[in-house]
Amino acid sequence: MSEWSKRAVPKELVEELERRFNLDALTASIMARRGITSGQDMLYYREDDLRFQNSPFLFKSMEDAVDRILDALEEGERILIFGDRDVDGVSATTVLLECLRSLGGKDSGASVRYRLPGKDDPYGLSMRAVEEFAAEEGSLIITVDCGISNNEEIARAGELGIDVIIVDHHTPPETLPEPAIIIDAKLEDSGYPFKDISGCAAAYKLVSALRFSRTRWYKEDMALLNVREDGGLMTVDCIKLRNLVPVSTLSRSFESPVSVTETEIPIYLQGQIVLVWNEKEQRAMLRRLFGQGAEFSLLDVQAEAAKLMPRTGPLPLSKLKGLSTLAKYGDHAPTEIGGFYNIFVSYVQAAQRKEFPSMQEDEEKDMQLVALAALADIMPMRNENRLFVKKGLASINAGRTRPGLRELMAELGMLGKRVTSTDLSWVVVSNLNAAGRLGHPEFAAELFLTQDQDTRTAMARKIMELNTERKRLSQEGLSVAGPQASVSIQAYGGKLCVIADERISRGVSGVIAGRLVGIYDVPSIVITFVEDNAIGSMRSCRGLDVTRFLDQMDDIFLNHGGHKAAGGFSLKKDRMDELTARLKELSGTIELEPSSAGKYDIDAEIPPSYLTPELLSISDGMEPFGEENPPLLLMTRGIPVFDAMILGKTEQHLKITVGTEKTKWPALFWNEAGRLHRDFETGDKIDILFRLERNVFNGMETPQMIVADLKRSK
């Protein structure tokens, strides 16, 4: 029996969300039920401006990485970008390569090229790649979506005089590679506040920092200063910035005028460019506080900001502080100095767009790949990942699809249709991933990088052919793995499924592991063999952390890595007995969370009379859907079934029509044709769990339901 549940939420909380964030009652109740209640969380659901993403310079090593790349470009060095073979790795490679070329990688005499692992190459940077690059007199390797576990290879690069920058997002090992500059949000001391960005997003952060390095603000030490009077007190507020990132703050209040030498303010501001809002007013306030002899070198931001942001105009900070979008989502009352900082960042970004007009177009192209990577690598749809996917989808749906992606979507028949995150995940990503899985990631890279449209179209067709082959290999592999699965699960105490079979293609081992997880609801490992090596893929569920699990067998593996939910490893074939014994031993320590199979958490109950197409706007407001933000699951009780029919070549699907006399909905129930006549009949009233989507046919969009479960109403 399935279990339906709808979590109770306090009425007061729903009303507070309605009021504070201007939500309708249904959306507010859904947000409350999903635990999206803080200002910061709500920001990423309600806004789509990249202004709200995290600064790349929050990475402590970002400035070092930027300076090393700028030196390489200026000196005409040979640079190698080494990526991974999947969508995330290819996207990261593309974003960084395009940026370096645009910054003068060719004009300066610098040679910038890329390399991806071939069919039988191991995951990550290889020793062969390092040594071959050294033979070409290369001097800088930048790894993207890999590198954090390549200790030996990076040490060898250092011996050969090659510098390495690691741009990765995988969980780092206990001993970090050296010598290297590392940009990885999962490093304990990375400085970056959000750990779950993709490899492509990490590369995009480096690209954003490189673009910022072209402005006059790069590496400038500056301070925002604001003097205000409140309740008889004179208060001086300061924020020190470097690359627009706050470094420190100072706030001092005085009851009466004081000598400037009696405060630490001059020392605090020493060596800084001091920025103020309304220089004339601020000078007057400083003289009132410190006397006529106190002189500060001030730079007025207000006049310049007004040219690019006219709405700021003559408004004082006391008025502007509450107009900031960020203030709306702040969990504390907005301050004048906080408002000044927000306005200043917006001003600098506007000035950057004006000075470098191509930057906005380049960023839009990047964002489509960052969106793809986030979905392909199953990044959680929260924090800035939501901004990335929103912006990527918005530009695609506005008809500005980047070259390469445009040709692939054309071949897939997707151009001119409204594309969702689900469409990208299930159609575009699955095709692109086939190239890497079957040993030809260069097809995907050239699809994005080549300037010739005919070549892009040819690459798109090759990728689709590989996806057809991938499907065939997956089906064959599953037919091999399926009969072994239940025996394996029993052998590992119901905690693990382990399949090792040379008949399974290496390129689809991860796909099959994922399918086994879906069927049996236990973490699964699929191992195949390439010459003397065993290559494994692992997919998890029910709370088991893949990287921590694999770390326990570090002494057996040649290499391994991944995320909490997915990972890979390799070892010598003659150590398989040792691996099997260790897995059986470790399976006894696995503690899985209770299975969620057959359990449905309902987002909202919708009365039949409220089942109108306007519901789609509620669903749209929760997009993009993905990891940690599944599509809305709605429930309606006592709704009549007007019609029912069986669909599919093998008559396995069910299509019913439900609704009211005013509004009727088509509803698809996949693989559940047997429920008709068993659980309900045409004319019955049913309780139904469903998700909403749009059906597109001949250019016409119609709303429809996708049924998760149903039962005859009592």
What's a quick, concise take on this entry?
The chain has 714 residues and is α/β, with parallel strands linked by helices. It is built from 24 helices and 23 strands. The radius of gyration is 29 Å and the shape is globular.
Written account of the structure:
This protein is of the alpha/beta class and 714 residues long. It contains 24 helices and 23 strands. The strands form five sheets. The chain has a five-stranded parallel β-sheet with strand order 3-2-4-5-6, sandwiched between helices. Strand 7 and strand 8 (233-242) form a beta hairpin. The chain starts with a strand and ends with a strand. The model has no long low-confidence stretch (mean pLDDT 93).
SSE class: alpha/beta
Strand order of the largest sheet: 3-2-4-5-6
* Individual helix count: 24
**Strands, total number:** 23
Distance between the termini: 16 Å
What does the main sheet amount to?
5 strands, parallel
- Helical proportion, percent range: 40-55%
* Radius of gyration using CA atoms only: 29 Å
Q: Averaging pLDDT over every residue, what do you get?
A: 93
Outline: globular
Low-confidence stretches: none
* Beta-strand percentage range: 15-25%
Name some characteristics of this structure.
714 residues; alpha/beta; five-stranded parallel β-sheet; five-stranded mixed β-sheet; 24 helices; 23 strands; 40% helix; globular
